[in-house]
Each structure stands twice: as C-alpha cells, then as structure tokens.
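re: ur question from the group chat, yeah i did fold both. here u go
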Amino acid sequence: MLEVIEQVEDDDAARTLAITGAGAAFCAGFDEAVDPRLVESLAVLSKPTVAIINGDAFDEGLELAMAADIRIAISSARFAITQMKHGTMPHFGATQRLPRLIGGANALRMMLTGTALGADEALRLGLIAYLAKSRKELAEISGRVAAAILSRAPLAARLVKDAVVKGYDMTLEQGIRLEEDLYALLQTTADRAEGVRAFLEKRKPLFRGA
C-alpha cells in the first residue's frame, strides 16, 4: 500500500486514490509488522483520497480511514478505538484526528470507554460523509464521489486540500492569507484558463493538471 501511495503521488495521470477492505471488514486493526509510516503517508498524499468503508473499522483500521479526505460507509459498519483495553493507546493519529472530526467529548467517550459507533451516529457526528444501505449502493455512491472529484481541475483540488489541511494549524487570518496565495497561484495555470474558456463556450472543461 505504501508503494501505491507513492505511485499515486508521483504519477500526474493519477488524480485520486480510493481504499477499501478486501473482506467483510474495512480493517479491524494492524499486525505489528505494518510499516508505521503507512497512515501518515495516506494523510499527506497531495491528491484527494477516499475511504470506502465496507465493514467494521476498528483501532488502526479507523485511524487509517480517518487519514482519508472523504469517508463513505455501509450502514452495517461500526467504528471503535479499543487499544486501551490492552494497556496501550492509539499511535496512528486517532488522538488528534478523531477530536477534529467529532469533537473532543465524543472522541474521549469513544477512546476511554471503547464505545463503538454505528454508521448512523458516525454520519451524524461527521466521522463519515456518506452512508450506503447496501454494498450495491456503496459502490454507486463511491462511483459518484469519484466522478465528481475527477470532474474538477486536479490542481485546484490539490490546492484546496492543501489550504484546508494546513489551515487546521493556523489562525483564521493566516488561513485566509494562505487561501489568497494559493488562489493567486492557481490563476497562473493552464487549467484556470481552460475553465474560463469552457464557461464562455458553454462546454465541459478539459483539465490537464497544468
């Protein structure tokens, strides 16, 4: 998976990355042999990422899902952080990402008590962005999300992601200044010019990521 992430980062033709589970669960945790760089490598990928959660996401599995930009889950999925019952604690970002997504009180409730969230509550709290009632609907929603991402200018998508992620650690004024700088940078690109031409010509733009 690390190799795939690196390939997507380096390949200009790769516009987005989606991950999902191979079995009944999305991911129920990691073996000790898993490279500790895995989750953070997904988190810092400059291109949009999607976690298609086809089943339970527990412990490191939930930490992996939270490293993606957008999470889509099936209604039967559950979400939990339970490492403390084994005398350890999360170490792939849960203590930082979970409070940012669902608030400090709810994050502490999950981590300190091991409470598992159902998919409905995860949607209500903002842990996931889309909810599917079946595997068929999960595939359909995932396809629509991917199509929407791919219809956007790739450079604009990367800069928007950059602004949002870096803005977490900035004051409002600093974040707005970053947005202004990235906007000015985008105005110099061929994709921006193509967007203007397509609007004037009343057609779909053909973005090339340049």
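okk and heres the other one u asked abt
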Amino acid sequence: MLLVLKFGGTSVAGVEGVRTAASIIAGAARGGDRVAAVLSAQGNTTDELLSRAADYNPHPPARELDMLLSTGEQVSVALMAMALEDMGLRAVSLTGAQAGMGTDSVHGNARLRRLSPQRMERELADGKIVLIAGFQGVSPEGDITTLGRGGSDTTAVAAAAALHADQCRIYTDVDGVCTADPRVVPAARKLPVVDTGEMHVLAAMGAKVLHERAVELSERFGVPLELRSTFTDAPGTAVRALPLPEGAHRLTAVTARNGLVSLVGSGLHTLPKLGPQARAALEGEGIVPAAYLQAPRRLTVQVEAERADDAVRALHRRFFEE
C-alpha cells in the first residue's frame, strides 16, 4: 500500500514527539508500505515566529512573512529525516516546492493550483520515505507561499491525491471525530465513520479536527481519509461517503464557531420538528437564539458568543444523550 501520513504540531513537538511519530512511520515502512509523511511545524513554532517577526516589524510584508513561517515545517521534516536515518531507514525531506505543491500568488492564504508529484514518485520508487513540509507551496513567480492555518492537512490530502495513495491518515492529539468537542462536552462519543459531506460542514462550522480545504480536496479526488491519535493505538474515524436512502436523515455532531452553533447531519431539512426541539432545549438553559438556519446538512442557531459552549452542551444532551 501507499500511505500518506500527516502529523500535526503537537505530534512532533520536541525530541520525544518526533521519535513517537518516527516510530509510526517506521512501523508502516517496515510492514511493507510505501510511505510519504507530511509534517507541521513543531509545537507553537508558528506562533513564536509570528511574535518574532513583530519584534522587527509590526506589519511585516506578506511575502517575507511566508518566507519566515515556512521554515517551521522545514525544520520538522529535516529532523524527522535524521531520526529515521538513525533508525536505519532511508528518508528524504522535501519543501513544498520540491514536492511539487504549486499555488496561486496569494501570500498567507494561498490555494493549491498545480500538483507535480514527479520528485515524490521518484524518491518513493528509490525506496525512500518521503517527508513533505506541510503548509507551504510555491507561486508561479517562484516565491514561497503558505496555505493558512491548518494548511498541512491540505498538503497531506493533495499529496495523497497526486500520488494516488491508498489512504491518507491524519494523526493529531485526539482519537478522531466526536459528536462534540470532548473538551466542551465530556459525554461526547467518538464516531467510527463520518460522511465526507458532513465532515466538510463540521470543519466549516468550527470543528478543528480537520481543515475545511482538506475535506474539500478529499471529496473532489476521492481520497480515503482516517483521523487517528498519535499517542494511542485506538481506532480512529474514517471519513468517506455515507449515502442515505431517499427521505432518510442522520444527526452526526454539534459544533460551534463564535456565536454560531450547528447541529450537523444529512437530510435535516426533512425534520420539521428539529428547529422547535432545538429552541426548546436552548430556552431550557436560558439561551434565546437570535436566528435559525435549517439546511439539508445543518441546523445553525445564532447565540451570544459567551453562551456558545452552553448551547453546544444543551443540544448535545437533547439530541445525542437522551
């Protein structure tokens, strides 16, 4: 199998983090899989670089900021290559440009426009583990660009699509996708599988486990996704199409973004009582929504931002715990 593995910043923070991720990569490679891995910057590196830039210029030029921020991921892949070589495995680190990640010219929030996987394919064919710096690409002018927060997820799915990988695994500090943010709702339960379209809505409406653009790409190119924890062997959450029979419905999760709280699922427009039930659950907690929007894949209510977590808990109790 050809696997693309992505490790977030918390997964590669410090020497032990890199070694833990390296052991996962090594395990896949020694099991006979061809492996490409996409890495984020270590820990809080991106925030630290932003702070450092402000010491020199409170309004740094966007091009130079991209030049600076891209170094975080380059450090990660270089160190990972060293760790894997120390384990007796052949590895090569690549910048986004070297990996063929062509973008538009928008600094700070670039979009991928061209994927040229020849270098990655050549290194994989040579028996190496390919390590790709996430979050970055190269513009038509040859300048380094960055893809915005969460952009390493997008890099991973793009690499998986370009390489026709059998699976793209996103490793983070959580076990997978839950019915709500477990830090807000301790009773939230992990979902073994989530529909791709619903995951897209969840990401857009505030769920931080996967970047919206990454889900968009996985849906467009049919990339099989799985979200897993770097720190446990527990099964994760698969993200794939889950068709429903005509007229059927499914509630999957509740999430929040600022003061917008959303019940996400499929066929929700067929549930005329969903809005009144949500209103009753919220008003029972003294929360009076300012507006409602009901669509096939979400019911969104607007509440005061400071009550958003309370609203998430109330809706989770009503629709996922009762």
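fwiw on the second one: The longest strand covers residues 250-257. The chain has two domains: 2-173, 250-321. idk if thats what u expected
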